[in-house]
Specification:
The chain is an alpha/beta fold and 321 residues long. Helices cover 45% and strands 15% of the residues. It has 2 domains: 252 residues, Rossmann fold (3-Layer(aba) Sandwich); 49 residues, no CATH class. The chain contains 15 helices and 8 strands. The protein has an 8-stranded mixed beta sheet with strand order 1-2-4-3-5-6-7-8, with helices on both faces.
Length: 321
């Protein structure tokens, strides 16, 4: 179902309660919209034999999607694919009996057997959910960005970031995400190995069928960086086409070379490590390619500091086109 520009404009102007009501209407037209208790809902668009399952929050949808529609729907709808988005009102890790019951019902109805290709995607707490609930669709492809394996303090007591989730059980249904991945066709875990807690969670996903894609210096907010690189949608399209592999990801990930925020992260890391020579080379490269004023100003400072120590940068090499 394609929305008119007027309908899109209406979505952007709505309050949160009215937005939910409009999403309900759209869902009923495209497939269905179902409330799953006080904090979750399911939005399903029935279009084709490929199913993209995403775990998103109301806040990220409204902040990141121009049309204020779920990302999964926006990607799938234009390509004639089906989409199931589980929307959370906040970061819940999708740990609710109503969500368990919903996926149980999908299994009982053999829902996933109607699709030739199924892809689960989520980031952070949504990455945990994408891995945990993928057990309902054996053979699915799972892309989990910066996922937690569990918040069970007996296993991940070292992760003290989410104190508000301490009373939530991660030991009952759909609990330990790496175990729930056992039936997946392929799993991919994307994270920054320099972010210690994220790397520790990623280590818990070590399985023969899980490919870890460590992205040094991408920082603690991986999904926003992938969005800024303009590769997140391309990743999910490749996965839905059955073409997502490590090599494909690394080709896309070259976009980091032209992403100012990624380069600023790298500059900051070199600053912390007190590597002024390498930092100057980086800033010079970024200045020549991107003409960024911040990189130009930092380069001037670094070159002056290095020259005061009798160090000069090597001449720029002009490579043939």
């Amino acid at each position: 179902m394609n929305l008119t520009s007027e309908a899109r404009a209406d979505l952007t102007a709505l309050s949160d309660p009215d937005w939910y009501a409009r999403i309900d209407d759209i869902g009923e037209e495209a497939g269905y919209f179902e409330s799953l208790g006080p904090f979750h809902s399911a939005f399903f668009s029935d279009e084709g034999s490929v199913l993209l399952v995403t775990f998103e929050t109301r806040a990220t949808i409204r902040a990141n999607q121009k049309d204020h529609l779920p990302m999964g729907y926006a990607i799938a709808n234009t390509r004639g694919w089906s989409n199931l988005t589980i929307i959370a009102d906040h970061e819940t890790w999708y740990r609710a009996p109503s969500v368990f019951a919903y996926f149980d019902r999908l299994v009982d109805d053999a829902f996933f057997e109607d699709f030739d290709q199924v892809v689960f995607y989520g980031a952070g707490h949504g990455g945990y959910a994408a891995a945990a609930y993928s057990v309902v669709a054996p053979g699915a492809t799972v892309i989990a960005v910066q996922p937690q394996a569990t918040l069970d303090p007996r296993i991940a007591g070292w992760d003290t970031r989410y104190q508000g989730m301490r009373r939530t059980s991660f030991t009952n249904r759909y609990g330990f995400a790496p175990d729930m991945l056992e039936g997946a066709g392929e799993g991919f875990v994307i994270y920054d190995p320099n972010e210690t807690l994220d790397a520790m969670h990623a280590a818990l996903f070590t399985r023969d069928f899980v490919t870890k894609l460590p992205c040094p210096n991408i920082g603690p907010n991986v999904e926003p960086m992938l969005r800024e690189m303009d590769i997140l949608e391309q990743m999910l399209v490749l996965a839905c086409e059955g073409q997502f592999r490590a090599a494909a990801f690394w080709r896309l990930y070259r976009a980091r070379r032209n992403t100012p925020r990624y380069l600023r992260n790298l500059v900051a890391r070199l600053e912390n490590r007190e590597r002024p020579f390498l930092n100057a080379l980086l800033c010079r490269n970024a200045t020549r390619r991107l003409n960024g004023p911040r990189f130009r100003a930092r380069l001037a400072q670094l070159e002056a500091d290095l020259q005061s120590k009798g160090i000069t940068l090597p001449p720029v090499r002009n490579h043939p086109a």
